[in-house]
Amino acid sequence: MTHPTRAALEPIAWVSHASLEVLTGYLMKRAFNVIHADLVITLETFGLRTITFSALVMVVDNPGITQTQLAQGLCIERSNLVVVVDELETNDLIARNPMPSDRRAYALTATPAGQLLRDRVLAAVHGHEARALAMLTAEERAVLNRLLRRIEGA
Amino acid sequence: MTHPTRAALEPIAWVSHASLEVLTGYLMKRAFNVIHADLVITLETFGLRTITFSALVMVVDNPGITQTQLAQGLCIERSNLVVVVDELETNDLIARNPMPSDRRAYALTATPAGQLLRDRVLAAVHGHEARALAMLTAEERAVLNRLLRRIEGA
DNA sequence: TATTGTTATACTCTATAACTATA
DNA sequence: TATAGTTATAGAGTATAACAATA
């Protein structure tokens, strides 16, 4: 039909998602958006963005890590990591230490302030997830996490 | 410790995710990235982006929908939808029909070409998800979809 | 030659404000 | 006055190329 019928031009009551809500990618994006919006608010309190939060935690968990290794761990480009490390360094949360074995690279370490902030932020983020995922039981969340980990192949 | 130990400056073997891989938001982002990368490749074949794909499907499923309603359904801003509708209209996949009842609004309908493309793309996307989620059984995928739907509250 | 960190750049996605024409 | 569609714009996030210092 090249010309829509009269009925087709009437305003609809509500938007049907029928064909899309069976797609895992579609559902994952929407679920992620809900969680992420609350995470951003949680992190703002500590002056952190999602990427600086993940980077800080990873540096604390991997003292001496280089920027290339950190970028690989975070699945971002080395070039994009530079401003992330700059931001954390400016706020005295991590430090770029010269490596005697390779003078091209820096060994990243968290400062005492960075380690302290990481602990506080991590607790807050666990609280955020408890809130954002309150509709799921602990077991359901464990199932969800296990399934998500298998998708990435980790 | 203000000065990192010698051992802390050694290059690490591999990056530990210990503190992050228990967070659903972190796992969801990484799992989504894997699926989304393959989806983008699948849609490129049809000259579609993620957002134009979703919009096309939603217009076919909701003939006569207005742009404001479509934006709400897609969870994007009306202003950002304009170029999406432009793109689909330019490619003769959907049409902006004047609404007699409200001359400010457009009733969006899919063209025959748009309906045809939707069917072909949707089949391809189902194939893409079968590939990207091959590590999960049909039942596991159903469980995952159900959990994701509940997070969004839909 | 190859790699580390870096800069510059560009492209997508997203969010906000303001405009027009209608209601 | 409020709403539908539109424009302009600015901020994130992301990807690529090229460079200096070092391996």
From TrEMBL, chains A, B:
GO molecular function, one term: DNA-binding transcription factor activity
Domain of life: Bacteria
Coiled-coil region list: none
Matches recorded under Gene3D superfamilies: Winged helix-like DNA-binding domain superfamily/Winged helix DNA-binding domain
Domain HTH marR-type: 21-153
PROSITE patterns per record: HTH_MARR_2 (PS50995)
Record InterPro entries: HTH_MarR-typ (IPR000835), MarR/SlyA-like (IPR039422), WH-like_DNA-bd_sf (IPR036388), WH_DNA-bd_sf (IPR036390)
GO process annotations (BP): response to stress
Name the UniProt record assigns to this protein: MarR family transcriptional regulator
Organism lineage string: Bacteria, Pseudomonadati, Pseudomonadota, Alphaproteobacteria, Rhodobacterales
